[in-house]
Each structure stands twice: as structure tokens, then as C-alpha cells.
Specification:
The N terminus is likely disordered. The longest helix has about 40 residues. With about 280 residues, the chain is mainly α. The protein has a domain of about 100 residues. The protein is about 65% helix and about 0% strand.
């Protein structure tokens, strides 16, 4: 029986293996193509980046106190990056790229050598104004340099004009006085020094500061020379005289040096007035 069963089984045909079918979608999920997977990942990354940028732009628009002008917004209110970039490039073209104004007015460094004096307060005011309008350090030094050229040229023109005025005045007096030129100048100096003594210290100081200007005025020099000639070499005013000499003694008597005993010139002025009266001067 056992042997018969063995013989019958041996003569039979072996059954075919059963085929297993797998859905196409399942096969693709289990074994995705490398190229398709990378493309899908890139698309997903771009979508996420776009969403992130939109969220960041929206947060910038909503954040206070930053106020984005309407010209930099899209119709939906989002940030128009193209308009913002064009505006920046236009501004950079006008002002130049790189250097920006310092943090404050004290951050400016003056590198230009100036040919004129400017006090610290005025320079500080200039820097403050420059900073207020957005001037950078390079621009500030350019402005100072240009202004320095104008000032230097102006000083040169002024000096040349003054030299010409002095030369013209001297030429006029030499032509007018001829051989009396030197003598008249000496008489003018004598009159100047003589009447200066009767003035207050403040007026004397002012007069000495203006002496160079007066010395280049032909009309003043001619008048002073005439007064100096009237004074004479050792002429002493008397009661019968009038004019500049008499006026001088009266001026001395009215001066602070004569009336104030504590004045440093009191003794000298007093002696001069007494000497005039001793020689016959009368008011």
C-alpha cells in the first residue's frame, strides 16, 4: 500500500506554482525611480520657501513702527521686491555705494587742511547740519576743501585790492605834495600823536587799531598834515589862539587822565596842562 502510493505519486505531474500579482501603485511606492523622487523633493522645497518668504514679507509689513510705502507693495498688500530693488539701485547710483554717514556728528573726521581759522563751535554746528542731511565723511571733506579754495581765493583778491589801494593813495600824495611829501607825512604823524593823547584809553586803542586804514586815506593824511603844521615845532597855545592847539588843551582837561587822579597818565597830562597855562594859555 505504501509502495503503491509512492509509485502513483511518482508518475503524476507536479503542480505549477501560483502567480502572485501586485498592484502597480504599490510597486511604485515600494521602488520609486531616483530621478522622480529628487524632482518632487525640489518642488516641495520651493513651495515651502515661497510660503516662508510670503510669511516673512507679511510679517515685515505688519510689524511696527516700520511703514512700507505703497509703491513697494503689490495689489494684495504683499512686499514688491522688484520695486524695492529698483529703488535701491537708483539711490545707489545717485549717492554711490559703500560709505554711509557716521553714527553721529562727532563721528566726522576732518582730513582737509584749511587755510583759515574756524572756531570749534562753528565747526560743530556745520557737522551737525551735514549729518542731518545725510552727508558722509568723504562728502564733508569735499565740501570743506571746496570752501577752502573759495576762501583762499577771496583772501588773495582782498590782499591784492588792499595793496592797490595803498599804492594808489601813496602815488596820489606824492603827485600832490611833490617835494613836500616827506615833511607832510611827518606833520601828519605829529598831529595824530598829539591829539591821541587827549583821548580816552578805549578810543586810543580803537584809533591805533584803525591807524593803518587811516594812513592809507589821502584826505585824512592831508588834513592831519595841515594840523601838524599849525602845531609848529615848539609852539605853545595862548589865549589869543584858536583852532586845533586850543582844542587840544581843552580835550586834555576833559580827559579821564586829567580828572582821575588814579589814572596812570594823570601826572603827565596834568603837567602838560599846567605848562600851557604857565606860558600864557587862557580858556
Amino acid at each position: 500500500m505504501d509502495s503503491l502510493s509512492t509509485t502513483e505519486n511518482a508518475g503524476a505531474t507536479a503542480p505549477e506554482p501560483m502567480a502572485v500579482t501586485t498592484p502597480a501603485a504599490e510597486v511604485q511606492t515600494q521602488s520609486p525611480a531616483p530621478e522622480s523622487s529628487e524632482k518632487a523633493a525640489d518642488q516641495q522645497h520651493l513651495a515651502q520657501s515661497s510660503q516662508t518668504n510670503s510669511e516673512q514679507a507679511a510679517s515685515l509689513l505688519d510689524r511696527e513702527p516700520v511703514q512700507v510705502p505703497d509703491k513697494f507693495k503689490n495689489k494684495d498688500g504683499s512686499l514688491n521686491s522688484d520695486a524695492l530693488l529698483k529703488s535701491y539701485l537708483h539711490l545707489e547710483k545717485r549717492q554711490g555705494a559703500g560709505e554711509a554717514p557716521p553714527k553721529d556728528a562727532d563721528g566726522y573726521k576732518v582730513e582737509t587742511e584749511l587755510g583759515f581759522e574756524i572756531d570749534a563751535e562753528r565747526m560743530a554746528s556745520f557737522k551737525k547740519g551735514a549729518h542731518a542731511v545725510g552727508v558722509n565723511n568723504k562728502q564733508l571733506n569735499y565740501i570743506l576743501g571746496y570752501f577752502n579754495e573759495i576762501m583762499t581765493e577771496g583772501q588773495k583778491v582782498q590782499a591784492e585790492a588792499e595793496a592797490k589801494r595803498v599804492a594808489d593813495a601813496d602815488a596820489f600824495l606824492k603827485e600832490t605834495w611833490q617835494g613836500e611829501y616827506e615833511g607832510n607825512l611827518a606833520s601828519a604823524r605829529k598831529a595824530f600823536d598829539h591829539f591821541k593823547a587827549g583821548l580816552s584809553p578805549e578810543i586810543q586803542e580803537r584809533l591805533m587799531a584803525e591807524r593803518n586804514q587811516l594812513g592809507n586815506m589821502p584826505g585824512f593824511l592831508a588834513l592831519a598834515a595841515a594840523i601838524g603844521r599849525e602845531l609848529g615845532e615848539d609852539k605853545v597855545p595862548t589865549g589869543g589862539e584858536s583852532g586845533a592847539a586850543t582844542h587840544n588843551i581843552v580835550a586834555l582837561m576833559k580827559s579821564e587822565a586829567y580828572t582821575n587822579r588814579k589814572h596812570p597818565d594823570h601826572d603827565r597830562i596834568k603837567a602838560e596842562v599846567q605848562a600851557a597855562f604857565g606860558k600864557g594859555f587862557k580858556l
